């Protein structure tokens, strides 16, 4: 079964409030078994546009990735993220 992923590119607009999102999202990540493969880090834009922060989160499968995003736990955290950052966010099924 193919894994599921969140691929998120983030520009933090309020650095003081953004940590509140990270803390609020923890229960959803724990509940759905999220594994962070990329969480910030150095990068070089090779083509197209970029944001300040890049995140890749792995889940056991696509359905679990979707369930985490749609969960009440994550949606409460997402409201905080929306107030403190702009993001491009996709949920995608892995190749294998």
Q: What's the pLDDT, averaged over the residues? A: 97
- Percent of sequence in beta strands: 25-35%
What's the helical proportion of residues? 25-40%
**CATH-defined topology:** Alpha-Beta Plaits
How many domain units? 1
Number of strands: 4
- CA radius of gyration: 13 Å
Oligomer: single chain
Q: What is the strand arrangement across the widest sheet?
A: 2-3-1-4
Q: How many helices?
A: 3
Largest sheet: 4 strands, antiparallel
CATH class: Alpha Beta
Q: Globular, elongated, flat, extended or rod-shaped: what is the shape? A: globular
Task: Give the helix/strand class.
Answer: alpha+beta
* Helix-strand topology string: EHEEHHE
Distance between the termini: 7 Å
User: What's the architecture in CATH terms?
Assistant: 2-Layer Sandwich
Identify low-pLDDT runs: none
What does this structure look like?
By secondary structure, the chain is of the alpha+beta class. The chain has one domain: Alpha-Beta Plaits. It is 38% helix and 31% strand. It has 3 helices and 4 strands. The chain has a 4-stranded antiparallel beta sheet with strand order 2-3-1-4. α1 (18-31) runs antiparallel to α3. It is globular. The chain starts with a strand and ends with a strand.
């Amino acid at each position: 079964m193919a894994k599921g992923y969140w691929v998120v590119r983030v520009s933090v607009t309020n650095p003081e409030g953004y940590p509140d999102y990270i803390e609020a999202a923890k229960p959803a990540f724990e509940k759905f078994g999220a594994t962070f493969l990329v969480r910030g880090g150095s990068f070089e834009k090779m083509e197209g546009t970029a944001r300040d922060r890049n995140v890749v989160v792995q889940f056991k499968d696509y359905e679990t990735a979707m369930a985490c995003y749609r969960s009440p736990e994550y949606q409460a955290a997402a409201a905080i993220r929306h107030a403190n950052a702009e993001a491009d966010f996709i949920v995608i099924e892995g190749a294998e």
